[in-house]
Write a structure and sequence with these properties.
Layout: H1 5-11, E1 14-15, H2 19-30, E2 35-37, E3 44-48, H3 52-62, E4 71-73, H4 77-81, H5 89-98, E5 103-108, H6 115-118, E6 123-127, H7 132-141, E7 145-146, H8 161-168, E8 174-176, E9 188-191, E10 198-201, H9 207-214, E11 218-219, E12 243-246, E13 258-262, E14 275-278, H10 285-301, E15 307-311, H11 318-330
Parallel strand pairs: 1-8, 2-8, 4-6, 5-9, 10-11, 12-15, 13-14, 13-15
Antiparallel strand pairs: 2-3, 3-7, 4-7, 5-6, 9-10
The chain binds threonylcarbamoyladenylate and magnesium ion.
C-alpha cells in the first residue's frame, strides 16, 4: 500500500501552510489548542491570546515560569492598539515605521487582557509579525495570538519547522512549516510610555534604527530591572554543551572535539582542527543573525563536538543583539 501523504504529515505534525492547514490551525486555536507558527524572527508556540486555558497550556508545554509574560501578535496595528489603554506617540511612530516586522512594544494594557498573558503586570507586549503565514493565520483567526518562541524554556529558539518538532515533539498538534526564518533573532522589545523608551531586549531591529525614529533609548539592565523586563534571565538560549566566549581566536584550542562558532575573517595563527561553522564568511551581520540559532543548534547536536567556542561579533547593529544572546548562552 502506498503511504497516504496527509497521514504522514499528521504523524509528524509538520504541515505545509495550505489554506486547509490554516483553517485546521484556526479550529485548533478556537478549541484552546496550540499551533507551531512561523514568523520572520523565530518560530512561535501560538495560542488564543484571550483564552486563559490556552495561555496556561503555553506555559505548561514550554515549561516556562509564570513570571515571564507573553507577546500578543496581531494582523495589524489597529488590532494591536485596541488592547492598549494608552498609546504613546512613540508607539504610533514606531508602529508606522516598523510594523509589520520584528518589533514588540510594551504599553499599558486594557482590563480585558488576561493576567496570564502579562504575568500580572499592568503592561502588555504587542507585535505585528510580517511573515505571510503568520499574517494569514492571524487574519483567519481574527484575534490576538500569544506566541513565545517555540522552544522549551531557556533553550535555543527554533528558526525552522524541524527544530520546533525537536523542541516540542508531540506536545503541539500542528506545526505550520513556513521555511527558515529570514531574520533569525527574536523581535526587539521596547517599553514605551510618555517617558524615554526603554530597550528590554535587543533583537531583529537594530537599536540604532529605533533611535533614528524616537531618539535615545534607555537600556534596561537584565536581572536588575526584573519588574520591567521579566524573562531576561542570565542563562537563556542555552545549548546543552558548554559554550565559552573568548576575546581572540588564539584562545580557541585546536582539538577535534571543539566547535567554533566563527564570523567573518576571525583569524588564528595555528590551524584549527575542530569543527568550524561560520555565521557569515563575508562578515554580514544580517546573514549572521539569520544563521545564528540554526548553527548554534547544529554544533550542539554534532556528536563530534564537546565544547563550543565563540568570540563576540562587532558591537553594532544586529551584532549587539547576537552578542546579548551569546553572553546568555555562555551563562
Ligand atoms: O520575535 C519574537 O518576539 C518571538 C516570535 C515568536 O514572535 N517571540 C518571543 O517571545 O520571543 P518570548 O516569549 O520568547 O519572549 C518574550 C519576552 C519576554 O521574555 C519578556 O522579556 C518580554 O518579551 N515581555 C513580554 N511581555 C512583557 C511585559 N508585559 N513587560 C515586559 N516585558 C515583556
Ligand atoms: Mg524565547
Amino acid at each position: 500500500m502506498k503511504p497516504d501523504p496527509t497521514r504522514v504529515a499528521q504523524a509528524n505534525n509538520v504541515v505545509s501552510p495550505s489554506p486547509e492547514a490554516i483553517l485546521r490551525a484556526v479550529e485548533l486555536l478556537r478549541e484552546g489548542q496550540l499551533v507551531g507558527l512561523p514568523t520572520e524572527t523565530v518560530y512561535g508556540l501560538a495560542g488564543d491570546g484571550l483564552n486563559p486555558v490556552a495561555l496556561a497550556r503555553i506555559f505548561e508545554v514550554k515549561q516556562r515560569p509564570l513570571f515571564d509574560p507573553l507577546i500578543l501578535h496581531f494582523a495589524d496595528a489597529a488590532g494591536a492598539f485596541d488592547l492598549a489603554e494608552q498609546i504613546p506617540t512613540s508607539a504610533r511612530e514606531l508602529a508606522q515605521r516598523f510594523w509589520p516586522g520584528p518589533l514588540t512594544i510594551v504599553v499599558r494594557k486594557k482590563e480585558m487582557v488576561p493576567d496570564l498573558a502579562t504575568s500580572g503586570l499592568p503592561n502588555v507586549a504587542l507585535r505585528v509579525p510580517s511573515h505571510p503565514v503568520a499574517q494569514a493565520l492571524l487574519r483567519a483567526f481574527g484575534g490576538p495570538l500569544a506566541a513565545p518562541s517555540a522552544n522549551r524554556f531557556g533553550r535555543i529558539s527554533p528558526t525552522d519547522a524541524p527544530a520546533v518538532r525537536t523542541e516540542l515533539g508531540e506536545a503541539v498538534p500542528l506545526i505550520l512549516d513556513g521555511g527558515p526564518c529570514a531574520v533569525g533573532l527574536e523581535s526587539t522589545v521596547l517599553f514605551l510610555s510618555e517617558h524615554q523608551p526603554v530597550l528590554l531586549r535587543a533583537g531583529g531591529i537594530p537599536v540604532e534604527e529605533i533611535e533614528a525614529v524616537v531618539g535615545r533609548v534607555q537600556h534596561a539592565r537584565p536581572v536588575d530591572d526584573r519588574p520591567l523586563a521579566p524573562g531576561q534571565l542570565k542563562h537563556h538560549y542555552a545549548p546543552r554543551k558548554p559554550l565559552r566566549l573568548v576575546d581572540n581566536a588564539g584562545e580557541i584550542p585546536s582539538q577535534s572535539d571543539i566547535g567554533w562558532l566563527a564570523f567573518g575573517t576571525q583569524n588564528r595563527a595555528v590551524p584549527f582542527l575542530g569543527v568550524m561553522e561560520n555565521l557569515s564568511p563575508t562578515g554580514d551581520l544580517r546573514e549572521a543573525a539569520a544563521n545564528f540559532f540554526r548553527v548554534l543548534r547544529g554544533l550542539d547536536d554534532d556528536s563530534r563536538v564537546g565544547t563550543i567556542y565563540a568570540m563576540a561579533l562587532p558591537a553594532q547593529g544586529l551584532g549587539l543583539a547576537i552578542n546579548e544572546r551569546l553572553e546568555r548562552a555562555a551563562g
